[in-house]
């Protein structure tokens, strides 16, 4: 098990996909550091994961608002104190802003870009240094099908995901010779709380993908450690309605 005893940091851990990813990494024997904006949800998630933690790995959590740069930097220092280093960084936190350009305020735009694009940059910059030093690491950026397209009422969200894809593509080229693999995962609509907002845009929730399916696929790809490498994954629904 390549991922056993690896230190994994997951942002947006209490969301539908984040919690599914956490569960999958636990199955693979990884140590987890979880973060989100709701302490109660983090505590409840940690308790559920501990019940599945048959390999007795460490599971820690800390509340952090990634929309605040100072909080993000303080959070990084706390993670380093607890775990020393991170082997796998999963940038899963995201804001799905559904508003017309006219109704979107500059503050809403900045917050969405901060969480969806700037925070992954800050966290990657901080934790990739030890990955490079150890000549092993995984940076998994959760983008979206919106990283490849645009749509009405989602201009800010699409802009942030296009930016994340561009960042990831560049870092993949920059870090692959240093033992660090950067993967971009771009799923379509998922059966999560955020998915309910997508449903309001006219899509059919019953056709959405299961978070557990995506989590299983992502962790499976992260476990490859030979010459085969995954740069980008676009995960789509079988039927789009």
Comma- or semicolon-separated keywords:
single chain; 241 residues; alpha/beta; 7-stranded parallel beta sheet; 15% strand
- Give the strand tally: 7
State mean pLDDT (0 to 100 scale): 94
Structural class: alpha/beta
Determine the number of helices (DSSP H or I, runs of at least 4 residues): 7
Please summarize the sheet with the most strands: 7 strands, parallel
- Give the distance, in angstroms, between the N- and C-terminal Cα atoms: 38 Å
SSE diagram, text form:
Elements (H helix, E strand, L loop, with lengths): L6 E4 L5 H12 L3 E6 L2 H14 L6 E5 L5 H15 L4 E4 L14 H29 L2 E6 L12 H21 L4 E8 L5 H7 L11 H12 L9 E4 L6
Parallel strand pairs: 1-2, 1-4, 2-3, 4-5, 5-6, 6-7
Quick overview:
The protein is 46% helix and 15% strand. The chain has helices at residues 16-27, 39-52, 69-83, 106-134, 155-175, 193-199, 211-222; strands at 7-10, 31-36, 59-63, 88-91, 137-142, 180-187, 232-235.
Describe this entry's structure for a reader.
With 241 residues, the chain is of the alpha/beta class. Helix content is 46%, strand content 15%. A seven-stranded parallel beta sheet has the order 3-2-1-4-5-6-7, with helices on both faces. Helix 1 links the parallel strand 1 and strand 2. Helix 1 packs across helix 7, helix 3 packs parallel to helix 4 and helix 4 runs parallel beside helix 5.
């Amino acid at each position: 098990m390549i991922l056993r005893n690896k230190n994994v940091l997951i942002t947006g851990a209490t969301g539908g996909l984040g919690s599914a990813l956490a569960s999958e990494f636990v199955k693979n024997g990884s140590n987890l550091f979880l973060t989100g904006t709701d302490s109660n949800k983090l505590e409840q998630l940690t308790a559920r994961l501990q019940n599945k933690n048959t390999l007795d790995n460490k599971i820690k959590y800390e509340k952090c608002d990634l929309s605040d740069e100072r909080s993000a930097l303080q959070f990084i220092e706390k993670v380093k104190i607890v775990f020393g280093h991170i082997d796998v960084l999963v940038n899963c936190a995201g804001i799905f802003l559904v508003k017309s350009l006219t109704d979107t305020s500059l503050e809403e735009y900045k917050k969405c870009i901060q969480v969806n694009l700037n925070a992954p940059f800050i966290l990657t910059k901080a934790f990739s240094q030890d990955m490079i030093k150890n000549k092993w690491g995984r940076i998994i950026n959760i983008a979206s099908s919106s990283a490849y397209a645009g749509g009405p009422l989602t201009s800010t969200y699409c802009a942030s995901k296009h930016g994340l894809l561009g960042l990831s593509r560049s870092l993949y080229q920059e870090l692959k010779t240093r033992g660090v693999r950067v993967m971009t995962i771009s799923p379509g609509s998922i059966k999560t709380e955020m998915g309910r907002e997508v449903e309001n845009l006219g899509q059919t929730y019953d056709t959405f993908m299961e978070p557990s399916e995506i989590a299983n696929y992502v962790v499976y790809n992260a476990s490859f450690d030979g010459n085969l490498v995954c740069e980008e994954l676009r995960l789509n629904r079988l039927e789009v309605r």
